[in-house]
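User: Predict the full complex structure for these chains.
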Amino acid sequence: MEQPLLNRSEIVVLQPSSLKESLKLLNENPDAEIIANASDLWPRIRNGEVKPKKLLDISGLAGELSYVKKDGNLIKIGALVTVSQLEGESILKEKRFSGFKDVIAKFGSPQIRNVATIGGNVCAASSSEDFIPLLLAFNAKVKLSSVDGERYINLEKFIIGKRKINRRPNEILTEISFEDPGEGYSSAFEKIGRRNTLIINIVNMAVVGKVKDGKIEDVRIAANRIKGKIPERAKNTEEFLKGKALNEETIAGAKKVLSEEVSLTDDFRASAEYRKALLLAMLERLLFKLRGEQ
Amino acid sequence: MAQMLVKLNVNGIEREVLVDPDDRLLDVLRDEFGYKSVKEGCGRGDCGLCTVLMDGKPVLSCIIPAFQAKNHKITTLEGLNNDPLMKKIQEQFRAHQAAQCGFCTPAMEIIGWHLLSRKKEASKQEIKEAISGTLCRCTGYYDIIDAIYDAGRPE
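Assistant: Here is the predicted structure of the two-chain assembly.
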């Protein structure tokens, strides 16, 4: 299939081999689009949706930014960690991180998991980015590095719209971190699409929480399109659930709060009404998962 | 910027090739190296037919910029032609008549090889998961799954 001809062959490609060099190059070329393994941006460049003049290829920094580690009480994930690499990480195999396993199992396809990075997934800030709800539910922060230094902002403040992120032109997202919630917590994620692999979700939802002796001690919920087109926390529903016994009455009440909190829209994937029915069913299922039921 | 000189390692052969910044690994493998087993289906990462191995892992050559393939080892089906496990997989594809139009066959065989080389007696569920991102337009999945399954079993 011949693609439409653009001036794509004029793109200037910058290929630094260290973070320091990358930050300097980006500072000099703030109009450059950053690519890691390019699995999201490349098809959009090829079809003409994005027309960059310059590309900053940071895949050469894999040695510096491909770590998953526990530092004090923080779990730190380097921006260039691929989805397949996350799958093998022993830290994330603990029960409280089982939401990661849920995201990975339905992420893209096996081939895409071998190249897609967690930093790229967050920066793409599109509705297909299933890590975002989970990371929101973990209260994650992103680290932005530039020649001026580093700054940390909450993921919630970083994602500001569909494909819009709060990144200054000379900054690179270098790390995602969140506090280890500790023993007793668990997490889960669900995604519904028209098939299991290679599909953009109709809805998705992630929960992180702690249920002790049948009572919800803490809970954080995030889903796509709570109030618009981007993944957000369902804070009213969280407040309603906190401190209550996890039973059918509470779940019925939480569904009511959630249905008032969301403002879903129709699109070619599904109607708002169908989306709402799915979200409410997901909430119930995920809350039962917190209690340790399947 | 005009063309870029990139050193690629494909099927054990190192070669410097001139690529445009917008060339895909797929284009270089087919047009420069002549490896026609690498097929273009959708061209946007949805169908899996352009699957090759990069450092031993299946990836989609249609969404990998050619200039990013430097410093990696690329393997196409042609590079596995003399491999005993690949021979076995291909025998089973013939025995099960698992190629209908044949367009997805190279990708399916590479993915089968990758799975069986890590886990000889893969279960049908594991095979289904491995090929879940690779589409067969003839929808002959059962024969493909059976062929990979039997290739992993003792004769």
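Residues 185-290 of chain A form a domain with the Enolase-like; domain 1 fold (CATH 3.30.390.50).
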